Amino acid sequence: VDLPLSFAEAAKGCTKHISFGAKVPCDTC
């Protein structure tokens, strides 16, 4: 997964929320 991340966000820390469809259940599902 490629997420755009600016230097400022990386420096101060950030949280990115992502969602995607998976054809198989993950371990937490």
Low-confidence stretches: none
SS elements, strand count: 0
Shape: elongated
Give average pLDDT, whole number: 65
Radius of gyration of CA atoms, rounded to a whole number = 13 Å
Through-space gap between termini:
19 Å
Number of domains: 1
Strand fraction equals under 5%
Q: How many DSSP H or I helices? A: 1
* Biggest pleated-sheet summary: none
- Helix residue percentage: 10-25%
Q: Please write the string of helix (H) and strand (E) elements.
A: H
The oligomeric state is single chain
Structural class: mainly alpha
GO biological process, one term: protein folding
InterPro entries: HSP40/DnaJ_pept-bd (IPR008971)
GO molecular function, one term: unfolded protein binding
How would you characterize the overall build of this protein?
The protein is mainly alpha-helical and 29 residues long. It has one domain. It has one helix at 7-12.
Task: Write a short abstract of this structure.
The chain is an all-alpha fold. The chain has one helix and no strands.
Write the layout of secondary structure elements.
Layout: H1 7-12
Key features?
29 residues, unfolded protein binding, mainly alpha, 21% helix, HSP40/DnaJ_pept-bd
